[in-house]
Design a protein that fits this description.
The structure is a single chain. By secondary structure, the chain is α/β, with parallel strands linked by helices. It has 11 helices and 17 strands. Strands 3, 4, 5, 8, 9, 16 and 17 form a 7-stranded mixed beta sheet that branches. A 6-stranded parallel beta sheet has the order 12-11-10-13-14-15. The two termini are about 25 Å apart. The chain binds NADP nicotinamide-adenine-dinucleotide phosphate (NAP) and zinc ion. NADP nicotinamide-adenine-dinucleotide phosphate (NAP) binds next to helix 1, helix 4 and helix 5.
Amino acid sequence: MTTTVRAWAAPGAGEPLEPITIVRRDLRPDDIRIRIAYAGICHSDIHTVRGEWGDKTYPIAPGHEIAGEVVEVGSEVRTFAVGDRAGVGCMVDSCGECEACADGEEQYCTGGVVWTYASTYPDGEITQGGYSQEIVVTERFALRIPESIPFENAAPLLCAGVTTYSPLEHWGIGPGSKVAVVGMGGLGHMGVQIAHALGAEVTVLSQTDRKAADSKRFGAVAHRATADPAVFRELAESFDFILNTVSAEINLGDYLGLLRRNGVMVNVGMPSEHLPMKVQSLIGRRRSMAGSNIGGIAQTQRMLDFCAEHGIAAEVEVISADQINEAYDRVVNSDVRYRFVIDTDTL
Ligand code: NAP
Ligand code: ZN
């Protein structure tokens, strides 16, 4: 007997989300069932259901920032018990055998990651995400949510938190690093807080000055509005590391000019457009251009524990299900402070 639960889903590309019911599988021996308390709205949900990342099978119930409580465990589950706090991020399974999986970087699994929604398990089960009452997932892809972080503030850490933590950790950002975070939305506001907690000196590069006071509150030493082209002259060759979280097209060359010799620009923002750049922007100062995809399961747990230790989490606006479509438009307009999370009691 499978379980039917309430969810919100897009019936087709670009169509508004609406209530549906979805089916969750019976627990396998290594599965846990989580009653979802809150689910974050990531800009990736919007890119996906609006068809900006290619064709998908609909309906899609998005959501890969999931926090809640374990309500049932399979017969062989060892790491979770009923009543535990648990989270699920962007992945629900991987091959477990390839080099990336062996390295604990399941997000780069070459055998095939199973994403939390709009993805297919090897047995044909199509995944549906966190805008729903419950999710069933193997214990290996569930995370422990520290007691000190409320569910609504923890949910966005499962994607926005780890996506910004991962490159900062990978490139060894810490005391002495001069970091710029481009775009202060869901990812950006976590990137600022985490980079600051790691000991870096952080500057926010935002379109306008509207979020300046928040940048300082999140630990940045400076906030500059990129609408003013003088910023690109004044900050030329200032940073060791740039984290680009922008969801839309930007001129990469302008930003590369802000890097010092040997500086690195890591792109996590994923607009559908091609972003042109000249290699000259890299060559003259031996700069690097890179990308980074979420983070592995062990790294996600390290990030959650790091956030708890440093007293940081996502700043959220809690919404009800019937506000999801309006929230999508606000996210696209850079009008979210700083993550919408859905109260799943309202689904
Ligand atoms: P978000 O909350 O919408 O934040 C994006 C920010 O980018 C906005 O708040 C805005 O910041 C800035 N921005 C938006 N449009 C812009 C424009 N036309 N020009 C310049 N800046 C602009 O989105 P998010 O949830 O943080 O996600 C950001 C991107 O990362 C999305 O493309 C998403 O799909 C991607 N993503 C990637 C990964 C990964 O693993 N690589 C994981 C999650 C998400 P200001 O108001 O400060 O200008
Ligand atoms: Zn996401």
